[in-house]
Amino acid sequence: MQNKSTSWYKKPENFALLLIIPLQIIMNLVGLFPLIAEIYVSFTNWSPTSGDWYTAKFIGLENYYRVFFKDVQFWQAIQRTLFLTIACVLTEFLLGLGLALLFTDNFLGKRFFTSAILLPMMVVPAATGYMFFMMFQRDGPINAILSMITGQEVKINWFVFGDTAMFTIYLADVWQWTPFMFLLMLSGLLALPQDPINAAKVLGASRWQVFRHVILPMMKPLITIALLLRGIEAFKIFDAAYIMTHGGPGTATQTVSMYMLEIGFRAWRLGYVAAEALLIVVAMLLFAWFVVRPIFLKRS
Amino acid sequence: MALSEGEKLELEELTKYFGNFCAVDHLTLEVNPGEFLSLLGPSGCGKTTTLNMIAGLLEPTYGRILIGGRDVTYLPPIERKVGLVFQSYAVFPHMTVYENLAFGLKVRKMPKAEIDKKVKEVASLLQLEDVLNVKGGKLNLDQTQRTALGRAMVIEPTFFLLDEPLSNLDPALRAVMRVKLKQLQKELSQTVVYVTHDQLEAMSMADRIAVMNAGKLQQVGTPEEVYNNPTNKFVANFIGSPTMNFIDCTLTEKDTRMLLDAEDFTIDVTRFGEVLKKEACGPEVVLGIRPEHVQISLERVKNCIEGKVVLVEPLGTETIITCKIGRKEIKALMLGAYKISIGDRLYLIPNMDRLHIIDKKTEKVIV
Amino acid sequence: MDIRAKKKIEKIMRYVILILATIIILFPIYWMVITSVKPPEEWTPTPTNPRLIPTHFTLDNYVFLFAPFGVMETFAQFRETIHQPLMSSLILSGSATVLALVIGTCAAYAMSRYKAGGEFAPFQLLMFRMFPPIAIIVPIMILYSALRWLDTAHGMIIFYTVVNMPFVIWLMKSFFDDIPKDIDEAAMLDGCSPPQVFFKVILPLVKPGIAVTALFIFIMCWSDFLGALVLTYRYWLTLPIALSKYQGLFGYLYGPMAATGVIAAVPCMVIGIVIQKYLVRGFTFGAVRR
User: Fold this and answer.
1) Please, which residues 104-163 of chain C have a Cβ atom closer than 8 Å to chain A?
2) Burial, B19: exposed, middle or buried (Cβ in 10 Å; 0-12, 13-18, 19+)?
3) Do A83 and A237 form a contact (C-beta atoms < 8 A)?
């Protein structure tokens, strides 16, 4: 029974509007306006130490120019981060897939082992960094275990050398995020249709042959997405790495995020950082438009 | 094409338990070379499980499988040389038809030239030459079917296992494919084990039918045998469409005559007296007669059953008439069209040569 | 080879690998928890004894965090307690979770039923995830310094809410999508107005979804590091930041350091185990379609 004088908020369109307004307010206020401000700031040489942002001097594209051509440290950070990302994601993928293959059928203790494998993912990343920081101390358990295994005293100063420090960051990330890949791979494996796999088995294929010729090709779309998702996240690596090395020794383990932190919040060159941030955002957008979107569209 | 010499397939006491559930219960069966055997039964009776065990995908809990006398029970599929075609066909979508066909040979590490020869042979036999380079995922239903079949043929298996391959098709196409498959089988004189739940398919295609229910083998025989001489109630009920009439009766002896007392009518079965006295476990029996063996008459005749029409189903060339006698119902199948309406009085004459009497307790057919 | 023998070997191999993997995976956590209950003499391994299994247990390390004086005299110079970061984490995470859930659930419902926000809204939200946090932080920082919102509770809560919106909406929308629209229509036929449909009919149906999302967002807020690092400096530091601070402050006090780590990590681990199954949805953005 329609009452002629239905309150306006009860009408479907209006109600929908009402529901979504808080979201719009908060996202625009805290998301959009600062973004616009940031774009403006990126064209200035603002530093909070020299006054409020609207008083900073406008210097046009100078920041961008400097980022592209003069900033060696920035590009080194990018290179380092890319290298780290690729290493971590590949390792996590291989380990995750390998482990997932063991979980495709039921066995005693499956629940227990599943929870155990998922545990690292649920540790706060900062705490992970903290844990690994303590473990890799000169007088910490890692060295102790290595000493036990090799029989001689091992006292590696993991955080003093660039390479070993990178290695610890790599290990921390693999430790933390392999469960993620494991989850994805497992869901993918379980969702595979069984008939083609059985057909291959009856035709005489060995386990490895079935995997290589049937399972892997059918998993391709999922693997692509998994690598992409994880890759994007890994590029932003910060929490654990920062706690473990603070970018040190020197700048040997400084990732892109850490570098920007240093510039922005140690040297307080916010104008410059704004430019860098926007550059990265643009790069990400381009990447999303040309790489992610086609993949997304192909699926639907 | 020189497919391998057929070998005999034997199943000995094949049993499979899933936890406490018995899927296949001491199945003993023989399939002769060149024979088309159908494994017939309702869903869940264990026929697919049996098939999987023969193919090597499942391990039996107990029992043996022998191919040509060799015990293959625990051998991996590659050593059994069995061709399996799934209900879903399971053609590899990311491989071309050529690669699909070649797969079985590739995993056996056959040289490329030989693979090519054999693939081309099968392709020409099944008319797949023009789609050899098309990816499996892009084929239509008919091509998918032939590819699935060809993939199994290429490895020159000792016999074929087909798991309800026609159930995805619509009835018209199914009828056509039935004929085609049977022709192909006879041409190549291959041994085929064909799993289905459609008794019509089994009856029309198979040399012999093995009827299964709840994991147990009920009866093995030619279509004629299972139709005319079912050994138990399940087989009698499962085979034939429309299904057999079943009426509970009591066996009584009156003077020298044996009677089947169905409360509302009686039938004189003195001619079976000897057998009945020997085999029947008790007086409780079930009378079984197929609708096609019940004649109707508008006049009272000797040894007839009087009934009232409750349903008429005209099927064009045939008519099914359901009559009610007291509380019991009997269906009669008559050729031709009949002008009979509901409520008419009819007299049913069962064909005494085609009558079955089933012991109620053991469900075994006595006559 | 015989299938049976092969299968047995494979079974054993599987367990061997799994047990090894579990040991390696659980070792860091195990070690941290162990260290947090060890007395000072046992903190560092010696050449003769790696001290993987403690011989004495003590809760002194935890007490130390809450009341540094008196417990370990030599370290009594540290006046830092863990109260403030702990409280801060709890309050900020809890409030942000509630706020994000309220706003996000409403919006998710609007998106699910009325396609508000456009067809590509979900995809747009995914885009948000692509930006490095540092890029998001800078404009926020600018805004906050102008608003004088740095190192304030409301500032941080709003920040967490905004940052986690994509997750809330993604999760809740998927839960709403799981409920057939027929139910909405049936309710409206019965005379309910749209608000009533939402509050009285649909919302109760997604209660488990809300619970799961809430726990998930709580974990995200609690784990935040960069945000708190930049946007707070004294009064509202969170636990993860405390970890960083204690690195320098406590130096070689492995015991209390481990205890801090445990306090920081345990709540989320527990929550994580509880909502294990649903983590798949959140982390994979529904990338795997069943």
Assistant:
1) 104, 106-107, 109-111, 113-114, 116-117, 123, 127, 129-135, 138-143, 145-146, 158-159, 161-162
2) exposed
3) no
For residue C120, the cross-strand partners are none
| Chain A: touching chains (3 or more CB pairs < 8 Å) | B, C
Q: Where are the domains of chain C?
A: 3-75, 83-284
Contact state of B59 with C2 under an 8 Å Cβ cutoff: no
Q: What is the 3-state secondary structure (H, E, C) of chain C?
A: CCHHHHHHHHHHHHHHHHHHHHHHHHHHHHHHHHHHCCCHHHCCCCCCCCCCCCCCCCCHHHHHHHCCCCCCHHHCCCCCCCHHHHHHHHHHHHHHHHHHHHHHHHHHHHHHHHCCCCCCHHHHHHHHHHCCHHHHHHHHHHHHHHHCCCCCHHHHHHHHHHHHHHHHHHHHHHHHHHCCHHHHHHHHHCCCCHHHHHHHHHHHHCHHHHHHHHHHHHHHHHHCCHHHHHHCCCCCCCHHHHHHHHHHHHCCCHHHHHHHHHHHHHHHHHHHHHCHHHHHHHHHCCCCCC
- Residue-range domains of chain A with CATH: 44-299 (1.10.3720.10)
3.20.20.70, 3.30.70.260, 3.40.50.2300, 2.40.50.140: CATH of B247-359: 2.40.50.140
Which residue on chain C is closest to B58 by alpha carbon?
C3
Which residues in chain C touch residue B76, judged by CB atoms under 8 angstroms apart? Answer: 3
Amino acid at A4: K
Q: Which two tokens stand for residue B173?
A: 């196409």
Return d(Cα B60, Cα B54) in angstroms, integer.
9
Answer for the pair C253, C77: CB distance below 8 angstroms, yes or no. no
| Per-residue confidence in pLDDT tens, chain B, 367 aa | 444 566 888 888 888 888 888 888 888 988 888 889 999 988 888 888 888 888 888 888 888 888 888 888 888 888 888 889 998 888 998 889 999 998 988 888 888 898 899 899 888 888 888 888 888 888 888 888 889 988 988 888 888 899 988 887 888 888 888 888 888 888 888 889 999 998 888 998 999 999 998 888 888 999 988 888 888 888 888 888 888 888 888 877 777 667 777 777 777 777 777 777 777 677 778 888 888 888 888 777 777 788 888 888 888 888 888 888 878 888 888 887 777 788 888 888 888 777 887 777 666 666 5
Whether the model clears a pTM of 0.90, i.e. scores above it, the answer is no
Sign of CA dihedral B98, B103, B106, B108: negative
* Chain C partners within 8 Å of B74 (Cβ): 2-4
Is the Cβ–Cβ distance between A63 and A145 less than 8 Å? no
Residue ranges of domains in chain B: 9-238, 247-359
- Burial code of A66-84, b = ≥16 C-beta within 10 A, e = fewer? ebeeebeebeebbebbeeb
> Whole-angstrom Cα distance, residue C240 to residue C93?
12
Angle (CA) A107-A110-A113 rounded to 5° is 140
ipTM of the assembly?
0.79
Angstrom distance (rounded) from CA A136 to CA A141: 7
Which listed CATH number (3.40.640.10, 3.30.420.40, 3.40.50.1240, 3.40.50.300) goes with B9-238?
A: 3.40.50.300
What CA–CA distance (Å, rounded) separates A40 from A53? Answer: 10
- Tell me, yes or no, if the two domains B9-238 and B247-359 fold the same way: no
**Rounded distance between C-alpha atoms, residue B260 and residue A137, angstroms:** 96
Instruction: Specify whether domain C83-284 bears CATH 1.10.287.3510.
Output: no
Gap between the terminal Cα atoms of chain B: 47
Of A193, A198, A203, the CB nearest to B155: A203
* C-alpha span between C264 and A159 (Å, rounded): 23
